[in-house]
Amino acid sequence: MHFDDSAPIYQQIAEDIRQKILSETLQPGEQLMSTTAYATAFRINPATAGKAFSLLLDEGLIEKRRGIGMFVTATAKEQIVTKYKDTYFETTLKPALKTATDLGLSETEILTYVTQYLATKRDKKL
Questions:
Q1: Buried-most residue among 13, 85, 95, 124 (CB within 10 A)?
Q2: What CATH number does the domain located at 9-74 have?
């Protein structure tokens, strides 16, 4: 994971974990690295990782099991989908499509790429 200046590090960690839950890289019931492991792996203050975990706890995406660690909740992916699905087009896809057209990509090129991408994702699920 690479941090940038776009947002506080704890928010970037939380977003990375959300994305891993959404892509099913992190499964329901799976244990997260400890704050100490995050601090060591990414050379950050353990309190920064703790702040990210607190955010995810408040959102109900992870749960703390006393003496064991933090785990992805059973409903984490569903919660993320529900929260972001309605705003995805306006906040993510529409700006990406605008950039694509500003770059001079044709409708055919954009649709071809999207079709190929979706076919690849579909084939991986089979």
A1: 13
A2: 1.10.10.10
Per-residue pLDDT of the chain (126 residues; tens, 9 = 90+): 778 788 899 999 999 999 999 999 999 999 999 999 999 998 999 999 999 999 999 999 999 999 999 999 999 999 999 988 888 888 999 999 999 999 999 999 999 999 999 998 888 766
Contact between 105 and 97 (Cβ < 8 Å): no
The secondary structure of the chain, three-state, reads: CCCCCCCCHHHHHHHHHHHHHHCCCCCCCCECCCHHHHHHHHCCCHHHHHHHHHHHHHHCCEEEECCCEEEECCCHHHHHHHHHHHHHHHHHHHHHHHHHHHCCCCHHHHHHHHHHHHHHHHHHHC
State pTM to two decimals. 0.76
